[in-house]
Amino acid sequence: MQTRRQWLMRVSGGAVLAGWSGVDLTAAELPPGLYAPSRDHLGHALAGHPVAPGGDTELVQVSGGVFRPAFFEANPYRTLQQLTGIILGEAPDSPIVREISEWIDLILSEAADVRATARAFASPHRILAIHYYGAESVRGLEEFDPQKVVREGLAWLDAESHEQSGFTALNLERQLALVHRISDPKTDNHGTRLFTYLKQRIADGFYTSRAGLEELGYRGNAFYASPPGCEHLYG
Amino acid sequence: MAVKTYDVIVVGSGASGGWVAKELTEKGVEVLMLEAGPPRVPTRDFTEHIWPYQLKYRGFGNQKKLLTDQPVQRLCYACDDYSRQFFVNDSEHPYTFPADKPFMWIRGRQVGGKTYCWARVSYRYSDFEFKGASHDGYGQDWPFSYKDLEPYYDRVENYIGVSGSYEGLPQLPDSRFLPPMRLSCGELVAKEVVEKKFGWKLIIDRSANLTVPLNGRPACHYCDQCQRGCFTASYFNSPSVTLPAAARTGRFHLVSDAVVSHLLMNHEGKADGVAYIDRSTHAAREARGKIVVLAASALESTRILLNSRSRNFPNGVGNSHGVLGHYLMDHTTLEHGGGTMAALQSSVREPVGRPCGYIIPKYVNTVGPHRNKSFLRGYYFAGDGRQELYGHASSIAGFGREWRDKVRSQIPYSFSVYAQGECLPRYDNYVKLDPEKKDAWGIPVLHIHASYGENEHAMAKAMRDHLGEIMDALKLEDRKPPVDELNIFGKNIHECGTARMGVDPKTSVLNAYNQVHDVKNVFVTDGACFVTQGCWEPTLTIMAISVRAADYIADEFRKGNV
User: Fold this and answer.
1) Is the pLDDT confidence value at A2 over 70?
2) What is the 3-state secondary structure (H, E, C) of chain A?
3) Any CB–CB contact under 8 A between A207 and chain B?
4) Do residue A132 and residue B216 have CB atoms under 8 angstroms apart?
């Protein structure tokens, strides 16, 4: 007998259940676009590749080779990994730091394009966005430049490191001391702006990772036999 | 080659079209359904149980793509990294509005329409809606009463399954419920406070999710990802519930990717069928039928009628008195109220996955003592109480393991509350064909002219006052007041009206059975037919009305009256 918790972890582990096929979902007699309820949904959720190719969903592409950052040069990328490691309290070469650094590189590499797209909005779309999100938020999307925040922040860190090759040349103790400085919310400089930006991205990356969700004890995306509710009252 | 003439052509495969097709085919009528969008393939298009870390953008979405292809649709909460495939590409589906009257049009074109991503909230209307004009003198009554529609609500609910609690409220009649879902800790706390202090009920919402198995569909397993496509068909959508029932009769023919542009009218002034355009090849095609039922969504059905211009119908079909396109409604909401419940902060995680929230049903201007003379009609409150996942992470200072430990062990408890109110039907809220702009298939698009009026703004003041009183009574901390402005028109995706029903052909487009006054073999069964919409979500009522209309169509067809 497995608990729901183990269940959840098995699903997230991507174990492959032999014998499942999608046949019951598109019962042959139904026209395309209609479907019958899955009789083996458990099996479906446990299957390793739950989305067949050809759709709009963009999945993580697992590549066997060495990761090449799209936004960062080699040395700044090492700085990013070290900062991510320190902010998470993990080794800079650990798999979770690699996973999150790669994702941050992706977001930054597309940031200029996203901003340009927002600035090129047709007038009606901009009007809708302003009414929906508020003018300040729309201006943020059009003007906030995270690439600049990161470039300036990394340059500031390197300068404050007082070493030929910058932040990466510092020992861990001196790196920690610098990160302490930039984590001070009462100060505003390129370093603190970098910290604020990275901490939010790292929180987004970590708490959407398998390890982060496990750490939170997240009890969703699960299978329950009865509706979740107050456990004090309903048991 | 002779073109086949079907008994009935149904345009649209969503909540309304699905029911019309099911009822007609089960009564022996042969139906051709035309759907503007493509079929969805569960194994390819459903993303249920996908984890954020399996997605390239971890659930935050490909922003470039969203801004480019879906600058309008992305504003809908349900159009995200997991489910954007169920929403249209805005560049193919333009529409226009005056710069000072923004309208947010959320559309799902596919076999199943918006039933893939609807929020499943299911309420019966009462005579406070159907006979609203008799009650307070504003506008028009519907051409039937609650008693007339009640047996059709029963039929729909017995077949699709609606969970909820029996409350005996005259302003929100009980459905034939499956067992209710459960309130969360914070909602139970709020229930006690709200019911004691204000005398208003706080109850679990009414939702078209199965809490027990029904008609061969397994019960919900509470993953709370309905809008990503549900493999077990445990909530109502037409592709897994009504359309398969129609298909099993052998009298159901489905053509997807068929973008209907207008009705084909004969010299007797009746419809012969419809003209449509192949979505992929853009080839012009025709389909022939003895009866045409438009169920393409309120604004799309009206657009087809407006675009059906001919010598006999220079302003479109059903528009001989200039009513078509008018009396557009969408609910008002005051949103984003809430805060945290300090007493419920915890280090222990609670289970999550309930696919609905709580509601405080309308209490003002109904049967109880709560009256407000500064506006007509009323509103209700909704929201939910739940633990933060990691939204508190950035407000906890510091970094490293210490920071993570605090994020894990100091879980704030959030309580949200917003109000949704009735929008009065007004002639000045209307849609018409844009004189210039066309969509990707060369069909004239809609120009939408809609804004909220005095009554909605007066009601918003009362909503805001009471939202504040609720938040005070619950002693919420880190309080967020509701936003200053009412929502953008259309944002609630409850657009209704524009081809309303009525007894008088001079002031309405359809009769009591959804039949166009001017053209007896054309029917409109979706939200376009609504006379008023109360403050309640319209889909359950759309379905009940569709069944009632289908009954009538089958009868009239058998008798040779249409």
Assistant:
1) no
2) CCCHHHHHHHHHHCCCCCCCCHHHHHCCCCCCCCCCCCCCHHHHHHCCCCCCCCCCCCECCCCCCCCCCCCCCHHHHHHHHHHHHHHHCCCCCCHHHHHHHHHHHHHHHHHHHHHHHHHCCCHHHHHHHHHHHCHHHHHHHHHCCHHHHHHHHHHHHHHHHCCCCHHHHCCHHHHHHHHHHHCCCCCCCHHHHHHHHHHHHHHHHHCCCHHHHHHHCCCCCCCCCCCCCCHHHHC
3) yes
4) no
The answer to whether position A23 is within a domain reads yes
From the number of C-beta atoms within 10 Å of its C-beta (0-12, 13-18, 19+), residue A64 rates as exposed
The C-alpha atoms of residue B117 and residue B111 are separated, in whole angstroms, by 12
Least confident interval from A164-168, A206-210, B248-252, B521-525:
A164-168
Residues A103 and A173 in one domain: yes
Note the pLDDT of residue A44.
66
C-alpha A85/C-alpha A109 separation (Å) is 20
Task: State whether A97 and A40 are in the same domain.
Answer: no
Range of the domain at A9: 4-46
Asked, for residue A230, whether it belongs to a domain, the answer is: no
Interface contact B250, partner A, CB < 8 A: no
Size of the A and B interface in Cβ pairs below 8 Å = 279
Residue in B with minimal Cα distance to A196? B394
* Helical (H) or strand (E) element with B16: helix B15-26
A81 in the same domain as A38: no
Q: Is residue A153 part of a domain?
A: yes
Per-residue pLDDT of B120-135, as tens digits, reads 999 999 999 999 999 9
* A33 and A83 co-located in one domain: no
d(CA B14, CA A208): 33
Domain match, A83 and A189 both: yes
DSSP bridge partners of B10:
B33, B293
CA distance B55 to B43: 16
Same domain, A81 and A31: no
Q: How far apart are CA A212 and CA A198, in angstroms?
A: 16
Nearest to B72 among A31, A114, A128 (CB): A128
Q: Is A66 on the interface with B (CB under 8 A)?
A: no
Token readout for B223 is: 């993953």
- In this structure, the answer to whether residues A114 and A27 fall within a common structural domain is no
- Name chain B contacts of A51, Cβ cutoff 8 Å: 43-44, 46-47, 50
A208/B75 touch (CB, cutoff 8 Å), yes or no: no
**For residue A226, is it within any domain?**
no
Residue B213 at interface with chain A, using a CB cutoff of 8 Å: no
CA distance B107 to B36: 11
Q: How many domains does chain A have?
A: 2
pLDDT of residue A40: 74
The pLDDT score that the predictor gives to residue A78 is: 97
Give CA–CA dist B514/B427, Å, rounded.
20
Query: pLDDT tens digits for B515-529?
Result: 999 999 999 999 999
Indicate if A101 and A210 belong to the same structural domain. Answer: yes
